[in-house]
């Protein structure tokens, strides 16, 4: 959602970290030129701030300029935007929530400055620490609105890794466990995971094929990455592709025979090939055939 632009009157900021020439906060940094403001600020009928994922996206949009400009400038520009968008009491509530978000970001940097987790227990410990930090700083409402989807994704990723590394489970058991884990996710998160899982599967499939992996190993890889149900769907697609490729090969063979026929002129050959295509393929398949021939 695009929010209304900030107030047109520029704000001059002079602080310890400001450059010698004061900056105009109404002017977005170069990194944001041409972008739309992500997120929005809303109030309910009583004038209170509606705390939802849009608020965090708005905070992140303005704070993402850090690196291109000093943090104080990004924060001041965001505060200006809040004041321009909201009356009281929602305005003060949004400013207070921004204070909490900045505190959270600073403390999170302290957690991330430690050595990165290298094993499952360490990963679990870090996830618990981050969740505890959020619960301490934010209200339950803000915690859920800002981080519920992210935490569900983190838990899924951790549990998926646990299943994949479990030595006591074979590929079928791991696939079934992944199916149960995936089914427990909210629908929107299931959809959001699809592109990432497809990319990971393509990369690992290519690596397996480069090593000379066979069909059994491919099935096991799929089961352990995307589960049994997705593996069955992928295998059905494989079979459909194989049938299609065989039909194409048969058509090309017959087409070649017509093209090399000595008793037909060019017009007759073309007509015979068109009849052959009509006999072998339906209208949508002939369109695929045409696209294939032109590419």
- Taking all Cα atoms into account, the compactness measure Rg is 29 Å
H/E element string? EEHHHHHHHHHHH
The low-pLDDT segments are: 1-24
User: What share of the residues lie within helices?
Assistant: 55-70%
Q: Record the strand order, biggest sheet.
A: 1-2
Q: How far do the termini sit from each other?
A: 39 Å
Q: What structural class do the secondary elements suggest?
A: mainly alpha
Task: State which percent range the strand residues make up.
Answer: under 5%
Instruction: Estimate the global geometry from the Cα principal axes.
Output: elongated
Q: Summarize model confidence as the mean pLDDT.
A: 86
Largest sheet: 2 strands, antiparallel
Query: Number of helical segments?
Result: 11
Beta strands, count: 2
Would you spell out the secondary-structure blueprint of this structure?
Elements: E1 12-13, E2 23-24, H1 53-63, H2 71-85, H3 90-112, H4 120-137, H5 140-165, H6 171-183, H7 187-210, H8 215-226, H9 228-259, H10 266-280, H11 283-294
Antiparallel strand pairs: 1-2
Helix pairs in contact: 2-3, 3-4, 4-5, 5-6, 6-8, 6-9, 7-8, 8-9, 9-10
Describe the structure.
The protein is mainly α and 295 residues long. It is built from eleven helices and two strands. The protein has helices spanning 53-63, 71-85, 90-112, 120-137, 140-165, 171-183, 187-210, 215-226, 228-259, 266-280, 283-294, and strands at 12-13, 23-24. The chain has a two-stranded antiparallel ribbon. Mean pLDDT is 86; it is low at 1-24.
């Amino acid at each position: 959602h695009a929010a209304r632009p900030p107030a047109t009157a520029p704000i001059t900021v002079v602080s310890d970290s400001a450059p010698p020439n004061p900056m105009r906060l109404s002017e977005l940094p170069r990194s944001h030129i041409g972008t739309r403001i992500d997120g929005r600020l809303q109030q309910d009928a009583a004038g209170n701030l509606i705390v939802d994922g849009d608020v965090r996206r708005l905070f992140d949009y303005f704070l993402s300029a850090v690196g291109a400009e000093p943090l104080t400038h990004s924060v001041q520009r965001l505060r200006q935007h809040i004041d321009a968008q909201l009356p009281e009491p929602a305005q003060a509530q949004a400013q207070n929530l921004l204070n909490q978000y900045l505190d959270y970001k600073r403390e999170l940097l302290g957690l991330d400055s430690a050595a990165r987790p290298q094993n499952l227990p360490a990963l679990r410990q870090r996830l618990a620490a981050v969740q505890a930090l959020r619960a301490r700083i934010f209200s339950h409402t803000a915690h859920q609105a800002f981080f519920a989807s992210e935490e569900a994704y983190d838990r899924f990723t951790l549990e998926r890794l646990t299943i994949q590394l479990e030595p006591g489970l074979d590929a079928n058991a791991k696939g079934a466990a992944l199916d149960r884990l995936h089914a427990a996710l909210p629908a929107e998160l299931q959809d959001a995971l699809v592109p990432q899982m497809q990319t990971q599967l393509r990369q690992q499939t290519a690596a397996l094929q480069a090593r000379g992996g066979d069909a059994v190993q491919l099935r096991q890889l799929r089961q352990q990455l995307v589960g049994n149900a997705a593996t069955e769907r992928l295998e059905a697609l494989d079979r459909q592709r194989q049938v299609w490729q065989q039909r194409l090969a048969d058509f090309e063979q017959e087409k070649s025979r017509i093209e090399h026929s000595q008793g037909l002129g060019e017009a007759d050959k073309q007509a015979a090939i068109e009849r052959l295509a009509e006999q072998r393929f339906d209208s949508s398949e002939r369109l695929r055939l045409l696209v294939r021939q032109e590419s």
